[in-house]
């Protein structure tokens, strides 16, 4: 899978997206790292586990280039901050594009 975001891209995050709705597989989210609360992650939900924990995975096809749930395990739902809904590419001049 090709990365959905490139270094330097800016994102628009809907912080209230999961207030009344459940996260779903395939959505790109902003979450706190489970071991380092000062680190924010932008990852895709690979699966929602029993109890609501999220298995997050990066889109980078080089598996060693992405720090995700394969290295730190499932992320508690309480660490979920919002859904990434759009990106603004750094240098392309494309404008705001939806994130899928």
What is the β-strand count? 6
CATH-defined fold name:
Umud Fragment, subunit A
CATH class: Mainly Beta
CATH superfamily: Umud Fragment, subunit A
User: Uncertain spans, ≥5 residues at pLDDT below 50?
Assistant: none
Which structural class do the helices and strands define? mainly beta
Strand content: 25-35%
CATH architecture: Ribbon
- The tally of helices reads 1
C-alpha Rg (nearest Å): 13 Å
Number of domains: 1
Overall 3D shape: globular
The amount of helix comes to: under 10%
Secondary structure elements and their pairing?
Elements: E1 10-14, E2 28-32, E3 40-48, E4 54-57, H1 69-72, E5 80-88, E6 97-98
Antiparallel strand pairs: 1-5, 2-3, 2-5, 3-4, 5-6
Structure description:
- The protein has 100 residues and is mainly β.
- Helix content is 4%, strand content 34%.
- Strands 1, 2, 3, 4, 5 and 6 form a six-stranded antiparallel beta sheet that branches.
- A hairpin with a 7-residue loop joins strand 2 and strand 3.
- The radius of gyration is 13 Å and the shape is globular.
- The mean pLDDT is 86.
């Amino acid at each position: 899978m090709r990365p959905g975001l490139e270094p330097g891209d800016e994102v628009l995050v809907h912080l209230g997206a999961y207030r009344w709705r459940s996260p779903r597989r395939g959505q790109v989210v902003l979450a706190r790292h489970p071991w380092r609360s000062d680190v924010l992650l932008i990852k895709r939900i690979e699966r929602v586990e029993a109890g609501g924990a999220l298995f997050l995975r990066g889109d980078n096809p080089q598996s060693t280039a992405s720090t995700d749930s394969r290295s730190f395990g499932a992320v508690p739902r309480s660490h979920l901050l919002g859904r990434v809904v759009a990106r603004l590419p750094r240098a392309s001049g494309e404008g705001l594009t939806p994130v899928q």
